[in-house]
């Protein structure tokens, strides 16, 4: 068994893999819903697939994010949403995606319920980036996100309220918000680093 197998197996064992359908019909839940694919490469030191959102986008231009997006009417489950979006945005086919587990849904400051789906993918997948969604995509070693030197929690104000927000500074990239929260959760599962997100992400901040 390789180091990658050990780490991916740990994630697989620690996370539930229910692949349940959406609980409510589209538009009937408490929040608009979305799903993202946290794709980890199958290699000795797994890397995580991230993208830089296109600058012309109305929401979160230029920010670092996972492939993913809003639930559509044809999507049976969060996994179908996440994998469909991954195909549309970065050309990652379903046949190359091996589900590992699911992290808890998170409520964003903008009022979306985001479902993170964790999977493994080949070490060097052939990607086709949709320039309408991402300016670029790249891989970062998952171990980077276990480094306390680049992780911090800080207070931000939005809509007249203050809240604690996770941030990673990876080179010139500032990774924050729900993307950083998902990376924290992955680092906690994979490396048992014990980073504290300092709030309940199942509730709107």
Throw out a few tags for this protein:
205 residues, alpha+beta, Nucleoside Triphosphate Pyrophosphohydrolase, 5-stranded mixed beta sheet, 3 helices, 20% helix, globular
Characterise the protein shown here:
- A hairpin with a 5-residue loop joins β6 (106-107) and β7 (113-121).
- The strands form three sheets. Strands 1, 4, 5, 6 and 7 form a five-stranded mixed sheet that branches.
- The protein has helices spanning 3-14, 78-90, 177-191, and strands at 33-41, 47-53, 64-65, 67-70, 98-102, 106-107, 113-121, 134-141, 151-158, 161-170, 173-176.
- The model has no long low-confidence stretch (mean pLDDT 93).
- The protein has one domain (3-191): Nucleoside Triphosphate Pyrophosphohydrolase (Alpha-Beta Complex).
- The chain is built from three helices and eleven strands.
- With 205 residues, it is of the alpha+beta class.
- It is globular and about 45 Å long.
- The chain is 20% helix and 33% strand.
- The N and C termini lie far apart (42 Å).
Which CATH C-level class is it? Alpha Beta
What value does the Rg take, in angstroms? 16 Å
Order of helices and strands: HEEEEHEEEEEEEH
Strand content: 25-35%
- Give the fraction of residues assigned to helices: 10-25%
